[in-house]
Amino acid sequence: MSIFVIAEIGINHNGSVETAKRLIDVAKDCGADAVKFQKRTIDLVYGEEFLARPRESPWGATQRAQKEALELSRDDYSELDGHCRERGIEWFASAWDMESYEFLRSFDPSYNKVASAMITRVELLEAMAADGRHTFISTGMGTPSDVDRAVRIFRAAGCPFELMHCVSDYPMADEDANLMAIPALRAEYGCDVGYSGHEVGMGPSRDAAALGITSLERHITLDREMYGSDQAASLDPQGFRALVAAAREIHNATARA
Question: Which of 19, 97, 104, 243 has a C-alpha 20 to 30 A away from that of 45?
Answer without folding.
Answer: 19
